[in-house]
Amino acid sequence: MALAMATTAGFCGSCHAVLEGSLQLSGSSSRLSMAKINRIAIAKSGLRVRAQQQGSAETGETSRRAMLGLLAAGMASGSFVQTVLAESNSTLLATPTTLPAKMTKKIRVAGIPGLLSAKSDSQGLIRAAVKLNIDGLVVDPIDITKLPLINVEDNPDIPPEVEDFINHVRRADAILFSAPEYNYSVTPITKNAIDWLSLRSDSLAGKTAAIISTGWDFGGGRMQYHLRQIGVRTNLHFINAPEVFVRTTVDEQNPPKFDANGDLIDDNVRAQLQQLLISLRDFTLQLHCHNLIGQNKTLIS
Fold first, then answer.
1. Whether residue 189 is found in the same domain as residue 263
2. In this protein, which residues make up the domain named NADPH-dependent FMN reductase-like (predicted)?
3. What mean pLDDT do residues 41-53 have?
């Protein structure tokens, strides 16, 4: 019987509590059982679990099952775990010092603007998001300037520049849409990008998403609600809060929020953007964690 300790952090996020207990794996049935012993408080630095494993061979598959069993038991018992065992490829070893102290994978967010001009507010908001320092998250700006207008009826082949665009988005864990409101709806640029992405079902399906909009009166609110409706068809999971609407009306009570180059100069909007991305990060972790348990529920007894 070997005792092993493992620590996961970074990409895994944080948790409030997890169960400490023993876990047994039967060789024939490949099922896990875990006795509840007590709860231990966990700091924000990551998730730490202790597992007892029976058997002569300590394989990578056993490691994954053990970690999944402990994670599922913690969640089922009511503990709030924001963690993903996405990189659980190493075996459980006899000494904890041989395991990495921190996982470095971050949530990758594809920033998709709704206008082509580099001086547009939507492009400026994507640049502002890239510059924010948010633990466990990185924003990748996506170039949409080379996308042609979709025309699959006359030309069913996807152009190379569109394939590159789709592949960039496919590698992301989440999407940040930044766009103005046009005639109570999304811009043609935003709709065109989504329509191209929808031709590859794995580019958007199951991903989380957030929206920051601009507009003259309601701050682009009507566009946001229409975009959420479009996202239903592509199986996007939008966060519900916070909702960030940026009013671009300039008067005595509302100074400019962007400079002549389209760069964000309003600290209040920057703070709202940061909270939006933090919420997107946390929701992405929760969704991944839920999906991970659902895919492996047959292993848990």
1. yes
2. 108-247
3. 39
Instruction: Tell me the pLDDT tens digit for each residue of 175-202.
Output: 999 999 999 999 999 999 999 999 998 9
Q: What is the pTM of this model?
A: 0.66
C-alpha to C-alpha distance for 189 and 142, rounded to whole angstroms: 13
* Contact (CB, 8 A) for 82 and 15: yes
Residue with tokens 């065992």: 85
Tell whether 98 and 196 lie within a shared domain: no
**Token representation of residue 238:** 């939008």
Identify the domain containing residue 238 by its residue range: 107-284
With b for 16 or more beta-carbon neighbours within 10 A and e for fewer, the 183-203 pattern comes to eebbbebbbbbbebbbebeeb
Helix axes 267-295, 121-131, angle to 10 degrees: 70
Q: How far apart are CA 255 and CA 70, in angstroms?
A: 53
Q: Is 252 left (phi over 0), alpha (psi -120 to 50) or beta?
A: alpha
* Integer angstrom CA distances of residue 128 from 25, 53, 92, 140: 49, 48, 41, 11
Closest CA to 64 of 127, 8, 143: 8
Structure tokens at 293: 């348990």
Do residues 147 and 206 both lie within one domain?
yes
User: What's the total number of domains in the chain?
Assistant: 2
Is the Cβ–Cβ distance between 239 and 280 less than 8 Å?
A: yes
Q: Tell me the two tokens of residue 231.
A: 């996202």
Report the residue count for the chain.
301
